Amino acid sequence: MDLLSDVLAVTGVRGTLGARIEAADAWGVRWSGIRGAAFYAITAGTAWLGLPGRPPFQLMPGDVVLLPNGAEHTLSSGPDTEIRACDCEAAAQAKAEAGVLRFGSGDVQTHILGASYEYDPAVSIQILTLLPEVVHLRADNSGSGLDDTVRLLARELVHTQVATAVVLNRLVDVLLVQLLRVLLTRQADELRGTWLGVLGDPLVSVAMTKLHHDPARAWTVDSLAAELAVSRTTLSRRFLSVAGETPGGYLTRWRMDLAAVRLRDSDEPLEAIARSVGYTSVYAFSRAFRRARSQAPGQYRITSRAPDQRRAPAAAPV
Question: What is the phi/psi pair of residue 312, to 5°?
Fold first, then answer.
């Protein structure tokens, strides 16, 4: 089992290509009130990105930027350019139509691809929320495939064909995985103590993979340690150091995430859902679920199906 693929699938992380930005001279726009994650890829020209409390920095051709938590930010032609609030209506229309947002006057010098990522709020283990406020990767990412994917996106936009929308959205998903790969290689120490840090530790990643592969099994620290041919003490110490929680605590959280999704998305009886995540009685499962989610499973099934609870909305500007 590929641990990252499993978590991305269960947490429902999904990207959508948004509006394209074509900019000329002297332009600046502020995006605020964003929920979700925003992504930019600079395909031509340059731009400056600014965040509150930080000096603006320049984006060059081939650079990619991810704002995992939708931080308020500005995009502009220069660090001292006048900034105006975004035209949210025009942005929404351009996104809906996969169209173009035009900034500035004169000949277009800068081309930017915008995308957004949404995720399933029913799941507590989220990748995007673990990342820094801003992730900026320069164009030189040899071997990661990021550069190639950005070029494919730009080419597909210029030469639209049958099912172009499907291709574009799949490429946006690929971009996120490639970005995470680069981060895991370059910022492994900074990610230690988070879920992503687990991927860089051979022992803990294998342990977590076993828990994901069979969450219904009656795991104990002893049985998991025996599977890995290490001592209980070694496993417990490493797991806590790398993942930031105990094996038992993580397993319970993952089980509750799986149960929450099934409660919302299926009409399976509680007995079946309880068994699928390792509980032999509905009572024990209900008690564990209420402790984790502050609601009984039946009540959660009702409230989680409300339209505004289904998914975290994507970022507004892209």
Answer: -70, 125
* C-alpha distance from residue 299 to each of 289, 302, 303, 312 (Å): 11, 5, 6, 20
* Phi, psi (deg, nearest 5) at residue 228: -100, -5
The Cα 14–Cα 312 span in angstroms is: 11
Longest dimension (CA), the chain: 69
Question: Alpha carbon of 301 to those of 38, 85, 101, 257: distances in Å?
Answer: 30, 40, 41, 13
Distance CA 112, CA 101 (A): 10
The whole-angstrom separation of Cα 93 and Cα 91 is 5
Task: Yes or no: say if 242 and 250 are a contact pair by the CB < 8 Å rule.
Answer: no
Q: If you ran DSSP here, which 8-state letter would residue 115 be given?
A: E
The SS3 call for residue 25 is strand
* Phi, psi at 109, each rounded to 5°: -120, -25
Q: Which residues contact 231 (CB under 8 A, 6 or more apart)?
A: 225
d(CA 147, CA 137): 10
Phi/psi at 289 (nearest 5 deg)?
-70, -40
pTM of the model: 0.86
User: Closest Cα partner for 180 from 229, 217, 118, 137?
Assistant: 137
**Whole-number pLDDT of residue 314:** 42
Name the packing angle between helices 247-265 and 221-228 (round to 10°).
Answer: 100
Taking the C-alpha atoms of residue 12 and residue 273, their distance in angstroms, rounded to an integer, is 19
| pLDDT digits 0-9 by tens, 54-94 | 999 999 988 999 999 888 999 999 999 999 887 767 777 66
Q: How far apart are CA 136 and CA 8, in angstroms?
A: 21
Give the tens place of pLDDT for each residue, 210-254: 999 999 999 999 999 999 999 999 999 999 999 989 999 999 999
